[in-house]
Amino acid sequence: MTLIAGLVAVVTLYLVLQMLRTANPSVVARGVKIGGGVAALGVAAFVGMRGELAVAIPLGIFGAGLLGWSPFGTSGFFSRTQQSPGRTSRVRSQFIDMVLDHDSGDLRGQIIAGEHQGRSLDEFGLTQLVGLAETFDPESRALLESYLDRRFAGWREDPKSNGAGRQGGQVGRPASSKMTEEEAYQILGLQAGASADEISRAHRSLMKKLHPDQGGSTYLASRVNEAKDTLLHRHRS
């Protein structure tokens, strides 16, 4: 019986590791954060019922923080720290319209030109998307590679990629193409006329999700930086 239980545990662990290897990193991180928050609140409730409030209160605050709640919000303890739920950023190129969800960090993309116009990137597998990248302009290719980094962790080491994207995220925006203010607002997920403080806050929030040191995209991080510089230059002018 012990041997069977051990085999089941090994198989389960293997399957979980396989899922984590191919899963979207932002989804995994969000799941771990939510799970930790629920566990912390559960332990805090248990300890609190035993009268150990000195342990239960800080543990409860920690768990609530993991779930996105703040004790210092304007509406009491259970007030979301998210200032703009549902905010998104949009980055467009010649072939792709990409949307980043600020809350989850998920990327959704749609092809807006060419043979597959109107189709979602989610409809294609890795091999198909790598093949499409070869037909795109450099900017669209860099944007697609950012999507692949989120959806297919480790795809650059996959032999099926045939070497495509080995310098992903380093493909620059054409030097002759200058970002407009409208595009900058869309990238930062802001309304036209946003203040300098709002621009800086949106930039910091996005960079936490997109910075290469955090497993994000070099290309998208560069576009976010460019959007901030474009709008702050307007404020300084």
Major β-sheet strand ordering: 3-4-5
For the record, give the distance between the C-alpha atoms at the N and C termini, rounded to a whole number: 75 Å
The portion of residues assigned to helices is 40-55%
CATH class of the largest domain: Mainly Alpha
Could you list some keywords that capture this structure?
mainly alpha, Helix Hairpins, three-stranded antiparallel β-sheet
Task: Describe the SSE topology.
Blueprint lengths: L1 H21 L2 H25 L3 H14 L2 E2 L8 E2 L7 E5 L3 E6 L5 E5 L14 H8 L4 H14 L29 H8 L7 H15 L7 H19 L1
Antiparallel strand pairs: 1-2, 3-4, 4-5
Brief overview:
The protein has 237 residues and is mostly helical.
Describe this structure in words.
This protein is mostly helical. It folds into 2 domains: 2-80, no CATH class; 88-236, Helix Hairpins (Orthogonal Bundle). The protein has helices at residues 2-22, 25-49, 53-66, 126-133, 138-151, 181-188, 196-210, 218-236; strands at 69-70, 79-80, 88-92, 96-101, 107-111. The strands form 2 sheets. It has a 3-stranded antiparallel beta sheet with strand order 3-4-5. A two-stranded antiparallel ribbon has the order 1-2. It is flat. The protein starts with a helix and ends with a helix. Residues 72-83 and 162-176 have low confidence and may be disordered.
